[in-house]
C-alpha cells in the first residue's frame, strides 16, 4: 500500500515485490509465465498491480479488469487485452485469425471453437511479445466472463519460451496450478503507519494498536473505516462486539457513507454502479433522463467515493457493490431503464441487458432483445454468455410455448458451455411447456447427449434410443443420426450397460426406411446394425462401403469430428489397418486444426492404438501426453487407453498393473464397458509378454467374452489362443480359433490373414506350422503392424528352438529381439533374449533408451519435426507458441547431437539408440 500524499513507498510488501522482480527478470529473459495475486477485498491487490506495472521497465504493459455486472457478457475482458494488437491479426494462421475475428465480432462466419480461440490469443500475444517484452495485468479476475477466463487461463498455462507474462489479481480461488502470491494483512508497524496517515485527530497509541488489530492489517480498512467513525468510535477503536469479516465491514462503511449523501447524488452513484463500462458521457445522458444535474456529482467526489472525468472511476469495487446493494429495487430498475434508453444501437447487448434488468414480471420486448443477444453471442462462440441471456429471457417470457422453446435453446447453450446441471434444470422447464413432439424429441436428445458426455456410456443409451424413436415421424435423416449416437453410447457402455440395448437399438434402426442418397454415416449405421442383427457375412460388404465413403468423401464438420472414431471402429472390424490409419489421422488433424479439444483425447487414443500395434511407441507416447494435457484443460476425457497400452507394450509390470487397476476402477464407476474390455485385452498382452500364461489366459477369456466390443474381442482371441496353447488348454484354443476365423475369413486383408495364420501355426505341428508362420510373416510384413511382425518372429523362433533347429531359431529370435529393443517393447525383448540364450546365443540385456533424456514436451516436438511439420504447425498441434517450439527444438538437437531435421527423422525412423548409448550388461 502506498502512503497517501507521499512518495511511492510500498508498505509491507517487500517479499512480494522481490518475488515480482525475479519473475519479471525471468520473463524478460524469455522464460515467460503467469502469476496470480490472491487476497481478500481491500488487501491491496490493485495497489500491488499498480506497483508492478510502474516498475516493469522495458515492458509493454496492458491493463484489463473484470466487472461483476459484465461477468456474463462474452469476451469483454479478452477484448481489453487483445484490442491493442488486433492490427497484427493477419500474421496468425488462418483458422486462428477467423476465431479471434469472430469472437470480437469483426467478421461473420462459423462460431469459433473455444480452444482455437485460446490458441489464437496465445499466438497474438506471443507475436507481440517477440517485438517487445509484454506483461498483461488482469485485475478482479473473479469477475472474468467465462470465455475470457478460459482463453486467458489457457494462455497462462501454455506460455513457454517467450518474454510474455500474465498477472491476475483475484479475491476468489486460484487459477489452477499457476504460481500464486498471497497478500495478507500488513504487519503491525506498517499498519500503524498507514492508519496514522488516515486519521485526522490525534489519538492514543493504545487505540491505534487496537484499530490496527481490528482491521487485521487490511489496508483499505485502515484507510476507510476511520472516515465513518464518530469521535467516540475513534477514541475506542472499532468496538469489541463487531465480529463481521473485514471486507463486510468495509462495505458497510461505504454503504453508510452513500446513504448520508443527497438523494440526487445517491441516484447518480446508482446509475454509475449499474453501468460497468465507465463511460461518463453515457452516465450523464442517463442522469439527464432521470432529471439529475451535474451538481449531483460534487458530494460523491468530495467524499472520495468516485471521480468522473473521461471515465467514471470508483474508489474501489466494494464502493460499486455497496451503492448497488444500498438502493431499493425500484430505483435499480429505474437506473437500468434510463441506461437502456440512452445506450446506442452499436451496443445492442448492453441495451438488452439493461432493459431486462429494468423489467418487472414478464416483458416480451426485453425477452426478445435478450434472445437476439444470445444469437450474437453464439455466433461469436460465447456459449456461456448465450446461456445467461437465454436463461434471463425465459424468466421474462409469459407465453408457455415460447417460454419452453427458449428454455430448450438455453439448455443447449448451457450444455455447450459444459454447465450440465443447469441445462437439465432448463430441460425440466422445457418439458412443462405445451405438448410439441419436435420440442420433446430435441429435449430428450439433449438429455441423452448430456448423459453421454458425463459417463461415456452408462445411462445415455435408453434416452438416446427414445429420442431416435421420436424423430422417426419427424425427420428420418435426423432419426438415423440419433440412432447412430445411441448405438455408439451402447457400444461404449458395453457389458456394463444393458447388453440387450445394443440389439434393441440395432433392430429399431433397421426398421427405418433406407436413405435415398446414403451419407457415409448412413452406411456406417447400416453396416454396424447388420453386424449385430444379421451377422458378419452380410455386414462386411456394407461396412466396407461405409469405410470407403468416409475415406473418400468430403465430410460435414460434424461427421468429421464426431463419427470418424466410429468409422475407425468399422475399419478395425474389417481388419483394415490402412483405413484405420487414414481415418484416425484425418480425425486427429481435424481436431488439431479446429481446436476441438473436447474430442481430441478420443481422436488421439484412436490414432495411438495403431501406433502401439505398429511398434511406434514414441509416437503413441507423444499423443498420450497431448491427450493428458487436453484432459487437464477440459476436465473430461476417456479412460487413458494410450497410457495403459504404453505401459503394457513397454513391459513395465508394476506401472502397467497399477495403470490397469486404476483405469478399471474408473471405467466401472463410469459405466464404460468398452474400456473394461480393452483393459482386459491389455492385461493379456502384458502377461503373454512376460510368459505368465495362466494370468494371460484369464484376462483374455474375460475380454473375449464381451461380444459388444467386437474389435477388441478379436484381438483378445489371438492372445487367448497363445495363452491356451502354452497352458495346455487345447479345447479353449480350438474354440477361440474358430471364433477368430469367423471374423477374419470375410475380410481377407493382410492383417486378417496374417493374424489367422499365426494363430493357426500355434495349434499346428511339423511342416504345417512352419508354412503358417512363413505365411503370417509374409502377410503381416505388407502391413505397417511391425509389433505384430516382431511377435510372429518370436513365436516362430520359439517353435524352431523346440524343434531343435537352433541355427534357424537364432535368426528369427535375433530379428524379434532387435525389433522389440528398437520399439521399446522391453518385456517382449527380454522374452526374446531369454529364448535366444536358450538357443545358444547369449546376448546382453538391452533396453531402448531413445529419447529418455528428452522431456515429454521435447519428445513431442521432436516427433512432429521428424514428420516434417513446420514450427507454426507444431505450435498449433501442441497448443504452444512457435517460439516455444523453436526453444524445445534447439534443445532436442543439442541433446541428440543432430544438426538437421533430416538427421532427426532418420534417428526416429530407424529407432536407433541415442548417440553415445551403449548396451548394458
TrEMBL record:
Coiled-coil residue windows: none
PROSITE patterns according to UniProt: HTH_LUXR_2
Descriptive protein name: AAA family ATPase
Domain of life: Bacteria
Family annotation (InterPro entries): AAA_16, P-loop_NTPase, Sig_transdc_resp-reg_C-effctor, Tscrpt_reg_LuxR_C, WH-like_DNA-bd_sf
Native species: Streptomyces kaempferi
Residues in HTH luxR-type domain copies: 847-912
Keywords: ATP-binding, Nucleotide-binding
Name of a matching Pfam family: GerE
CDD domains: LuxR_C_like
Amino acid at each position: 500500500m502506498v502512503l497517501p500524499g507521499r512518495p511511492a513507498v510500498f508498505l509491507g510488501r517487500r517479499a512480494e515485490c522481490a518475488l515480482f522482480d525475479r519473475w519479471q527478470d525471468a520473463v524478460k529473459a524469455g522464460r515467460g509465465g503467469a502469476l496470480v495475486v490472491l487476497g481478500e477485498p481491500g488487501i491491496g491487490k490493485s495497489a500491488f498491480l499498480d506497483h508492478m506495472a510502474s516498475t516493469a521497465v522495458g515492458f509493454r504493459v496492458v491493463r484489463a479488469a473484470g466487472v461483476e455486472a459484465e461477468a456474463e457478457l462474452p469476451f469483454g475482458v479478452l477484448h481489453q487485452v487483445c484490442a491493442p494488437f488486433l492490427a497484427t491479426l493477419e500474421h496468425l494462421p488462418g483458422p486462428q485469425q477467423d476465431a479471434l475475428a469472430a469472437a470480437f465480432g469483426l467478421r461473420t462466419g462459423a462460431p469459433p471453437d473455444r480452444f482455437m480461440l485460446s490458441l489464437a490469443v496465445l499466438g497474438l500475444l506471443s507475436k507481440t511479445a517477440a517485438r517487445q517484452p509484454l506483461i498483461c495485468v488482469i485485475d478482479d479476475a473473479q469477475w472474468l466472463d467465462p470465455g475470457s477466463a478460459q482463453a486467458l487461463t489457457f494462455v497462462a498455462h501454455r506460455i513457454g519460451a517467450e518474454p510474455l507474462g500474465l498477472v491476475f489479481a483475484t479475491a476468489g480461488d486460484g487459477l489452477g496450478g499457476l504460481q500464486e502470491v498471497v497478500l495478507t494483512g500488513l504487519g503491525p508497524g506498517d499498519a500503524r503507519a498507514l492508519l496514522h496517515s488516515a486519521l485526522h485527530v490525534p489519538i492514543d497509541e493504545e487505540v491505534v494498536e487496537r484499530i490496527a488489530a481490528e482491521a487485521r492489517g487490511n489496508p483499505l480498512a485502515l484507510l476507510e473505516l476511520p472516515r465513518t467513525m464518530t469521535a467516540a468510535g475513534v477514541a475506542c477503536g472499532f468496538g469489541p462486539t463487531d465480529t463481521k469479516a473485514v471486507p463486510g465491514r468495509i462495505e458497510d462503511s461505504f454503504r453508510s457513507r452513500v446513504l448520508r449523501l443527497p438523494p440526487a447524488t445517491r441516484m447518480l452513484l446508482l446509475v454509475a454502479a449499474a453501468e460497468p463500462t465507465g463511460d461518463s458521457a453515457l452516465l450523464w445522458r442517463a442522469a439527464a433522463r432521470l432529471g439529475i444535474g451535474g451538481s449531483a456529482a460534487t458530494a460523491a467526489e468530495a467524499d472520495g467515493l468516485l471521480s468522473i472525468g473521461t471515465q467514471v472511476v470508483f474508489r474501489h469495487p466494494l464502493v460499486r457493490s455497496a451503492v448497488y446493494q444500498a438502493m431499493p429495487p425500484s430505483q435499480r430498475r429505474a437506473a437500468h431503464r434510463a441506461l437502456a434508453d440512452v445506450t446506442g444501437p452499436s451496443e445492442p447487448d448492453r441495451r438488452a441487458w439493461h432493459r431486462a434488468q429494468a423489467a418487472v414480471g414478464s416483458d416480451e420486448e426485453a425477452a426478445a432483445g435478450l434472445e437476439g443477444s444470445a444469437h450474437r453471442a453464439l455466433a461469436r462462440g460465447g456459449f456461456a454468455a448465450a446461456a445467461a441471456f437465454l436463461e434471463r429471457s425465459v424468466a421474462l417470457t409469459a407465453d408457455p410455448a415460447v417460454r419452453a422453446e427458449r428454455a430448450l435453446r438455453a439448455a443447449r447453450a448451457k450444455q455447450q458451455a459444459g454447465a450440465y446441471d443447469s441445462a437439465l434444470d432448463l430441460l425440466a422447464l422445457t418439458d412443462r411447456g405445451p405438448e410439441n413432439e419436435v420440442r420433446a424429441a430435441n429435449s430428450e436428445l439433449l438429455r441423452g447427449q448430456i448423459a453421454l458426455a458425463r459417463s461415456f456410456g452408462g445411462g445415455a443409451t435408453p434416452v438416446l434410443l427414445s429420442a431416435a424413436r421420436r424423430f422417426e415421424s419427424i425427420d428420418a435423416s435426423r432419426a438415423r443420426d440419433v440412432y447412430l449416437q445411441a448405438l455408439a453410447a451402447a457400444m461404449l457402455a458395453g457389458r456394463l450397460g444393458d447388453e440387450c440395448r445394443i440389439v434393441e437399438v440395432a433392430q429399431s434402426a433397421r426398421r427405418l426406411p433406407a436413405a435415398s442418397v446414403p451419407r457415409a454415416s448412413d452406411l456406417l449405421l447400416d453396416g454396424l446394425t447388420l453386424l449385430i442383427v444379421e451377422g458378419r457375412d452380410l455386414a462386411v460388404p456394407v461396412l466396407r462401403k461405409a469405410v470407403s465413403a468416409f475415406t473418400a468423401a468430403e465430410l460435414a464438420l460434424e461427421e468429421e469430428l464426431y463419427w470418424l472414431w466410429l468409422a475407425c471402429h468399422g475399419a478395425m472390424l474389417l481388419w483394415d489397418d490402412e483405413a484405420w490409419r487414414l481415418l484416425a489421422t484425418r480425425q486427429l488433424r481435424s481436431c488439431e486444426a479446429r481446436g476441438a479439444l473436447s474430442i481430441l483425447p478420443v481422436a488421439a487414443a484412436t490414432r495411438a492404438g495403431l501406433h502401439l500395434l505398429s511398434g511406434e511407441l514414441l509416437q503413441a507416447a507423444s499423443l498420450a501426453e497431448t491427450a493428458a494435457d487436453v484432459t487437464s484443460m477440459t476436465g473430461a476425457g476417456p479412460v487413458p487407453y494410450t497410457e495403459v497400452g504404453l505401459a503394457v507394450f513397454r513391459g513395465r509390470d508394476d506401472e502397467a498393473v497399477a495403470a490397469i487397476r486404476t483405469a478399471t476402477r474408473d471405467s466401472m464407476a463410469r459405466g464404460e464397458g468398452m474400456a473394461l474390455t480393452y483393459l482386459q485385452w491389455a492385461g493379456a498382452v502384458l502377461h503373454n509378454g512376460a510368459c505368465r500364461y495362466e494370468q494371460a489366459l484369464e484376462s483374455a477369456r474375460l475380454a473375449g467374452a464381451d461380444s459388444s466390443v467386437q474389435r477388441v474381442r478379436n484381438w483378445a482371441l489371438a492372445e487367448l489362443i497363445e495363452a491356451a496353447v502354452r497352458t495346455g488348454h487345447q479345447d479353449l484354443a480350438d474354440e477361440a480359433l474358430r471364433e477368430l476365423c469367423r471374423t477374419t475369413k470375410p475380410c481377407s486383408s493382410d492383417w486378417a490373414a496374417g493374424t489367422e495364420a499365426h494363430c493357426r501355426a500355434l495349434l499346428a505341428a511339423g511342416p504345417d506350422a512352419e508354412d503358417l508362420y512363413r505365411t503370417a510373416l509374409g502377410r503381416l510384413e505388407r502391413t505397417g503392424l511391425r509389433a505384430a511382425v516382431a511377435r510372429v518372429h518370436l513365436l516362430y523362433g520359439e517353435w524352431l528352438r523346440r524343434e531343435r533347429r537352433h541355427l534357424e531359431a537364432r535368426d528369427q529370435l535375433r530379428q524379434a529381439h532387435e525389433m522389440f529393443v528398437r520399439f521399446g517393447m522391453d518385456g517382449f525383448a527380454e522374452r526374446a533374449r531369454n529364448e535366444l540364450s536358450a538357443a545358444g546365443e547369449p546376448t546382453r540385456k538391452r533396453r531402448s533408451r531413445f529419447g529418455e533424456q528428452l522431456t515429454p514436451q521435447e519428445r513431442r516436438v521432436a516427433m512432429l519435426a521428424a514428420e516434417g511439420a513446420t514450427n507454426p504447425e507444431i505450435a498449433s498441434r501442441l497448443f504452444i507458441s512457435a517460439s516455444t517450439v523453436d526453444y524445445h527444438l534447439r534443445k532436442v538437437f543439442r541433446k541428440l547431437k543432430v544438426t538437421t531435421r533430416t538427421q532427426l527423422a532418420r534417428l526416429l525412423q530407424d529407432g536407433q539408440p541415442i548417440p553415445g548409448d551403449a548396451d548394458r550388461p
